[in-house]
């Protein structure tokens, strides 16, 4: 059984086709009304979002409508040890979430990683001057490489503003989609 986790909004054609092909697909969107529902055979929607930290137990007790959890926690709850493809557009939370995936060794349980990265501002809970931020971003990307992830596709979204860390940047984009494959991937 394959597993595809989709985080974020946008075109869902890929996910629909993967579910039709027999892949188990989980789509996470905190704005949907129902907590969990099966959209079609093998295609589940969850009112949840992925975060770099699990919620505070005191906040959970207050019956919050939206749930955020670390990916490792969600994998455990759903009974998944591995993810074939993780596709995510996390609107600037990707840097902290990527850091969490690396620090907790969840990254090694992912076969392919397709991440939208945003460069228009540092991201949530990322601080320092511009050079500190760039070093932080670089360290995460370098860590992926050290953990046997190979970048196989980079797409510059030309429809996004040409902004890099709040500054205009000629021939750049504030958003890129980067795709990596885990060259040490062993599905099961």
Describe this protein's structure:
- This protein has helices at 13-20, 57-60, 71-78, 94-103, 130-146; strands at residues 3-7, 24-28, 36-40, 43-46, 48-50, 67-69, 83-89, 110-118, 149-156, 163-164, 167-168, 175-182.
- It is α/β, with parallel strands linked by helices.
- β10 and β11 form a beta hairpin.
Radius of gyration: 17 Å
Share of β-strand residues: 25-35%
Number of helices: 5
Uncertain residue ranges:
none
Overall mean pLDDT stands at: 87
Annotate the secondary structure layout:
Layout: E1 3-7, H1 13-20, E2 24-28, E3 36-40, E4 43-46, E5 48-50, H2 57-60, E6 67-69, H3 71-78, E7 83-89, H4 94-103, E8 110-118, H5 130-146, E9 149-156, E10 163-164, E11 167-168, E12 175-182
Parallel strand pairs: 1-2, 1-7, 2-4, 5-6, 7-8
Antiparallel strand pairs: 3-4, 8-12, 9-12, 10-11
Helix pairs in contact: 4-5
In short:
This protein has helices at residues 13-20, 57-60, 71-78, 94-103, 130-146; strands spanning 3-7, 24-28, 36-40, 43-46, 48-50, 67-69, 83-89, 110-118, 149-156, 163-164, 167-168, 175-182.
Give structural attributes.
alpha/beta, 25% helix, 188 residues
